[in-house]
Design goal:
With 158 residues, the chain is α+β, with helices and mostly antiparallel strands. The protein folds into two domains: 34 residues; 118 residues, Immunoglobulin-like. The chain has one helix and eleven strands, in the order H-E-E-E-E-E-E-E-E-E-E-E. Strands 1, 2, 3, 4, 6 and 9 form a six-stranded mixed sheet that branches. Strands 5-11-10-7-8 form a five-stranded mixed sheet, with no helix packed on it. Strand 3 and strand 4 form a beta hairpin. It starts with a helix and ends with a strand.
């Protein structure tokens, strides 16, 4: 069977591109620690206030250097809108919404998750550098969407 030279070149280039893309995915997942957010639980949006973790949202130290942060998104605000952790802390974020679709993006990190009513989403990140990390809602949720912001303070030696 005869394959035209241009056709063969195109097939080789396509194969090389597939290998490069697969390599990029492998490096991202295993080398850089990129992870997809996961749904870990379901909760009725009307009952968020009675759910463990979400009835008193905030930061909890599980053991030294390991934290869980529970956030509730609703009507143009995050609760809580500020947390403080020491440098090197691994924080697992648990997020849910009481009303509509929201987003949670932390500047200068790979934390980027959709918050869906009725779903508890989880993502983990280690804060290795001190500083102020701002987060915001990146899914349009209404007139005061731009006010959905907050801060994660990462401090030395706490």
């Amino acid at each position: 069977m005869h394959i035209d030279r241009l056709e063969a070149t195109f097939l080789w280039l396509s194969g090389i591109m597939l290998v490069v893309f697969a390599g990029a995915i492998i490096v991202s997942v295993f080398g850089l620690g990129v992870q997809l957010p996961t749904q870990v639980d379901q909760v009725a949006p009307t009952e968020v206030d009675t759910e463990p973790g979400f009835s008193d949202p905030g930061l909890r130290e599980i053991y030294p250097g390991r934290y869980e942060a529970y956030f509730v998104a609703q009507a143009w605000q995050f609760t809580p809108n500020e947390i403080t952790v020491p440098v090197g802390s691994e924080v697992t974020f648990f997020l849910t919404s009481k009303d509509v679709l929201h987003g949670f993006k932390v500047f200068d990190t790979n934390v980027n998750i959709m918050i869906i009513p009725g779903q508890v989403s989880e993502v983990t990140y280690t804060f290795d550098e001190p500083g102020v990390y701002r987060f915001y809602c990146h899914e349009y949720c209404g007139a005061l969407h731009h006010t959905m912001t907050g801060v994660i303070n990462v401090v030395e030696g706490e």
